[in-house]
Amino acid sequence: MLSLSKDKIKILLLEGISENVVNTLKSAGYTSITYYESAISEDELIKIIPSYHFIGIRSRTHLNDKVLKVASKLIAIGCFCIGTNQVDLIKSSNMGIPIFNAPFSNTRSVAELVLAEAILLLRQVPSKNTAAHSNVWLKSANNCFEARNKVLGIIGYGHIGTQLGVIAENIGFKVIFFDLLTKLPLGNARQVSSLNDLLSQSDVVSLHVPETNQTHHMITKKELDLMKKGSVIINAARGNLINIEHLKTSLDENHILGAAIDVFPIEPENNQEKFQSVLCGQNNVILTPHIGGSTQEAQIKIADEVAQKLIKYSDNGSTITAVNFPEVNLPHQKNCSRVIHVHQNIPGILNQINAVCAAHNINILAQYLQTKDDLGYVVFDLDITDAKTIYQEIQSIPGTLKTRILH
């Protein structure tokens, strides 16, 4: 792909991403921006995505093989959220398209929501709130508890899990956690050796793991039965971690005192679509519409972080923190032509690139190479102001996935 002026680079933003993104992109010279307040259908996306060079999404838009294979101009993907499971990472890599996200920007927002829900559930606020709205007065201390000295069990001790543990300790929770890796505890938190140990010891269980084949329905009736009678469970991570039907059964049996669910196996595409769940109508369940990271502070941080990453990649090829790409931090080029080459990680490609430059008597001023798994990424600055003469030869090297020239 040859260089385009910034005003001709087309950017598609979906799902009501913070408008700070638009301001940031325009300040950097990118003005051809299409902005949607919500997600769009897959069919509509397939129709329009072939025209765009960059796309920004949140969690509702799925960039699968069917969508990506028609995105012939796509240079990079921005996920304005924590996760990237809504994007086909393998297909994106094979097309030479890096994916950028904001894995830590809404950490505090999620941790605060979980802590608030834990306290509300321990105090039986959801059922008492429902009763009060129905003109019923349920003043009682039955099954209502302080957070102090209760055990909070955190499944997944990553950035959100660790921050939740720290702030929960400050109000008196005893924190234990389970993680597949041995982690350094913060504060007085304690790692337990198995999921079963965590479930059997905890008064409150909170999930903070990604969705994988191993974590899909990691909480079923079997695991719920291991939890203390009268305990509560919270999921603000991924929708398929808990078997929702099994959770409803445990709630109906009064084994689980309450639950808070922020993520669901199937979620509405937009605010106009009807939400449905077997948990609707349960007065001891807090249901929230995937708002764990939906605070003004988090959205501003996410908008700035991902937008800056896209700008930096577009401007000079830097791929630091890319999810699926070799990471290279690059200086700005001056009075030279920069060539970006994405290729299969096979022997000899760098030699072939150098041979093309030598055949045209072009001096290489600087060269940056990094690999990741099956992907290779090389960036080289040439002592010329226009590299169009060698573009086709570089692009024709066997194993090439994408070539881009920056002037």
Automatic annotation (TrEMBL):
Read off the InterPro entries from this record. Answer: ACT-like_dom_sf, ACT_dom, AHAS_small-like_ACT, D-iso_2-hydroxyacid_DH_PdxB, D-isomer_2_OHA_DH_cat_dom, D-isomer_DH_CS, D-isomer_DH_CS1, D-isomer_DH_NAD-bd
The enzyme class is oxidoreductase
| Domain ACT residue range list | 338-407
Reaction catalysis annotation: (R)-2-hydroxyglutarate + NAD(+) = 2-oxoglutarate + NADH + H(+); (2R)-3-phosphoglycerate + NAD(+) = 3-phosphooxypyruvate + NADH + H(+)
Q: Which CDD domains match?
A: ACT_3PGDH, PGDH_3
Q: Under which EC number(s) is this enzyme classified?
A: 1.1.1.399, 1.1.1.95
Could you list this entry's UniProt keywords, alphabetically sorted: NAD, Oxidoreductase
Q: In which pathway does it act?
A: Amino-acid biosynthesis; L-serine biosynthesis; L-serine from 3-phospho-D-glycerate: step 1/3
Under the heading Gene3D superfamilies, the entry gives: 3.30.70.260, NAD(P)-binding Rossmann-like Domain
Give the family per the record.
Belongs to the D-isomer specific 2-hydroxyacid dehydrogenase family.
Q: What does this protein do?
A: Catalyzes the reversible oxidation of 3-phospho-D-glycerate to 3-phosphonooxypyruvate, the first step of the phosphorylated L-serine biosynthesis pathway. Also catalyzes the reversible oxidation of 2-hydroxyglutarate to 2-oxoglutarate.
Listed name of the protein: D-3-phosphoglycerate dehydrogenase
Organism ancestry? Bacteria, Pseudomonadati, Pseudomonadota, Gammaproteobacteria, Vibrionales
